[in-house]
């Protein structure tokens, strides 16, 4: 649809559309057409920003609010910790969203949402108006459950490295600095958390590095869950076949606190555990702006949404994507899934702002690759379809599955997946 | 029935029923977009994945149905193709065929 037709469609559409058009005309320098503000430039938000521009034929103005200068991918970042990739290789600038798609990029954070006046307030104090607001704020860490981690300097010494960036590089440096014969311990929270197989992949990557460079060192996995929660049989086979002398897996270890001075993990029911490098992946909830705006209605942690539009069930006109949402049954908090949320939401927002019905039958897939060495990979896949009776996304019976075994063919496919999803999200 | 006869018969069935109740164009575009994570925006893939834009509709549909019915080995597509009806696969194949490579 060309711009002229798009504007015409708006005029014929809702009162909201007409009002937005008038407001747009009043500020011609900033462009015209309805306005969407997207908060958070990760897999969900960046994809939504790009696809709203593309599918509205640039008829909808999109402003992306993101504090970071460039996008650092969590998927593939465990390879930086394992030493086979650099952080630069998992980093993509936001330039193409601006240059190719005309997304207005604002390097800032959103500090408040006013759903009555339909504005967000930025860290700078400025306000941005919107006709539809998209929140893709990722996860926040529930440090209040681990008092020792809230002490000054604690989080510089005991890393999570669960948001790719400086912590990823810092954890790699800790591993490089430790002498052979040391112990690396990773603590895994109860599901749900961002990237279910991620901690197990990380254990593989650290063990792979140890097997080459520090063969007397150990990897201890302390998992709050009853068992490995993703690709369990495949991970356990990789640990037994490749890292039997390095990796030890201990389920049912719920972390209660961290004594950072003593480098000791304290558990609810198990004995204390001291290690040389501690890696604590803490409990998570929706990103701060979603929680403090009252959108995290599920357990005060996750945001419930309408699966046809990703509109919040708590705040009209506000859509929530990615790791922040209360997931549907068997839906992972993954990058691939956040990208799918972004497109489903983009299509719905373009429809709603042009007076049309959102698509009635979303179907999308998830694929997730884990590196068990620097080359051998295992995957899990699933297909999710909207169920009009239960009003949620359900996996399609008979679809999806896992690899038969770790293999290098999937290693090259995983690299192809990364290049393509980065382009689909950002280019 | 021999496989050689079965495949065209199935293709014909899938195609005719897809035409019988054509899904909304925007709905099909969104189904196809869920392939783009791996196969590129609008099917224009980067190196390492098969591009889908401009691929002949019948050829692509046959491949998808072969994955779905276990006639073609795959690492992942045999699992994903089972999540879609033949009619949905036909609509998706038609959408990619119409895109500029």
Helix and strand layout, with pairings?
The complex is a heterodimer of chains A (427) and B (101).
Chain A: H1 3-12, H2 15-26, E1 35-39, H3 43-55, E2 61-65, E3 70-72, H4 77-82, E4 91-93, H5 95-99, E5 104-106, E6 110-114, E7 119-122, E8 127-129, E9 132-135, E10 139-141, H6 154-157, H7 166-177, E11 183-188, H8 198-213, E12 218-223, H9 232-242, E13 247-250, E14 255-259, E15 264-267, E16 273-274, E17 277-280, E18 284-286, H10 288-292, E19 318-320, H11 335-353, E20 363-371, E21 377-387, E22 392-395, E23 401-402, H12 408-426
Chain B: H1 3-20, H2 25-33, H3 36-39, H4 57-68, H5 77-80, H6 86-97
Low-confidence stretches of chain A: 1-30
* Proportion of residues in β-strands of chain A: 15-25%
> Biggest protein-protein interface?
A-B, 45 and 29 residues
What is the name of the CATH architecture of the largest domain in chain A? 3-Layer(bba) Sandwich
Q: Strand fraction band of chain B? A: under 5%
Would you identify the regions of chain B where 5 or more consecutive residues have pLDDT less than 50? Answer: 1-20
- Please give the order of strands in the largest beta sheet of chain A: 5-2-1-9-19
Number of helices of chain A: 12
- Kindly report the average pLDDT value of chain B: 86
- SS class of chain A: alpha/beta
> How many strands appear in the DSSP assignment of chain B?
0
Q: What letter string, H or E per element, gives the SSE order of chain B?
A: HHHHHH
- Based on Cα principal axes, name the global outline of chain A: globular
**Which structural class best describes the helix and strand composition of chain B?**
mainly alpha
* CATH architect. name of chain B: Orthogonal Bundle
Q: Approximately how much helix is present in the residues of chain A?
A: 25-40%
Tell me the quaternary state. heterodimer
The number of helices of chain B is 6
